[in-house]
TrEMBL record:
Belongs to the carbohydrate kinase PfkB family. Residues 1-298 form the Carbohydrate kinase PfkB domain. This is Sugar kinase. The keyword Metal-binding does not apply. One of its GO terms (biological process) is DNA damage response. Keywords: Kinase, Transferase. InterPro entries: Carboh/pur_kinase_PfkB_CS, PfkB_Carbo_kinase, PfkB_dom, Ribokinase-like. It comes from the Bacteria. GO terms for molecular function: 2-dehydro-3-deoxygluconokinase activity. GO terms for cellular component: cytosol.
Length: 308
């Protein structure tokens, strides 16, 4: 059985049904958690592990229950004595584009590196892939970053493939320069890089695919998969450049989990032995379906009706 670890934060999500609504729906989401859920739903024979920290409050208990319900392993989910999960609220415009308000500065997940010891590293070293994102990096406390990069070096040396998606969120960083320095470290470590052109434009001011490809020519990745919204996906590997068409979605409801669900489909398919092109095609189908529904996580029955 293939084994993937996903490092990051799961949060309490609040969303209103409409701009006029006076009530909010509560659920749980977070970029790497979203990726984990869709990966496991698509490829149930893959062992999918969350690496995060939660509290001992009722929301944390519900979160752990959700991990279990989605068949995600929680052996690397740590329990903080005095911290609780972060929270965010989503507002949607008429085009389905979202804006976020966060309450996460003191969340349990920020201290996750304080829980990771030799035995945890030994277990993760037995995995096939370790995935994290720019949001994961931004959540790690600054004083824990050196430990994080040492941890990444250890598991990479053990043969675990490192996968990284930018997911740049400016408010997680004290400056753009701080974020850039951490992202450059990630590029140096990553075997699989999953950048979006929009994120790349925001952080490195490179807003076209050719510029992104040229930027990455200095790095020793195995797979570079460049996402560009409803435009084609560009993939570079030992096979050279492959371009995969994207069919635009007409009924866009909520783009919250577009990239996350793409990553879940892609990583799961690659672990299952599919080619890069086949994996991107599946990932596009998954993302296209997910953005036609509200919220980061599509109802399991609804999702299963499309992807068995």
């Amino acid at each position: 059985m293939k084994n993937i670890y996903l490092f990051g934060e799961c949060m309490i999500e609040l969303m209103s049904a409409s701009k006029e609504a006076n009530t909010l729906k509560q659920s749980f989401a977070g970029d790497v958690f979203n990726t984990a859920v869709y990966l496991k739903r698509l490829f149930n024979d893959t062992n999918v592990n969350m690496v995060t920290a939660v509290g001992k409050d009722s929301f944390s208990e519900d979160m752990i229950s959700l991990f279990n319900a989605e068949n995600l392993s929680s052996t690397q989910v740590f329990r903080s004595e005095n911290k609780i999960p972060g929270l965010y609220a989503i507002e949607l415009d008429e085009q389905g584009e979202r804006s976020f308000t966060y309450w996460r500065n003191d969340s349990a997940a920020r201290s996750v590196m304080k829980f990771i010891g030799d035995s945890n590293i030994a277990e993760i070293c037995q995995g096939d892939v370790f995935f994290f994102s720019g949001i994961s990096l931004g959540v790690v406390l600054p004083e824990d970053r050196e430990k994080f990069w040492h941890f990444i070096a250890q598991i990479k040396a053990a043969g675990v493939k490192i996968a990284f998606d930018l997911n740049y969120r400016p408010r997680l960083w004290s400056s753009k320069d701080e974020a850039q320095q951490q992202f450059l470290k990630a590029f140096e470590s990553a075997d699989i890089i999953l950048p979006g052109v929009d994120d790349f434009a925001a952080i490195f001011e490179l807003d076209d695919v050719s510029s992104v490809i040229e930027f990455f020519s200095q790095y020793q990745y195995q797979e570079l998969v460049i996402k560009n919204g409803e435009k084609n996906v560009y993939c570079l590997s030992v096979n050279g450049l492959e371009v995969v068409d994207v069919t635009p979605v007409k009924n866009v409801v909520d783009t919250t989990s577009a990239g996350d669900s793409f990553n879940g489909g892609y990583l799961g398919a690659r672990l299952a032995g599919h080619s890069i092109t086949q994996s991107v095609e599946l990932a596009n189908q998954v993302a296209g379906f997910v953005i036609q529904h509200k919220g980061a996580i599509v109802d399991k029955a609804t999702f299963s009706s499309r992807f068995n």
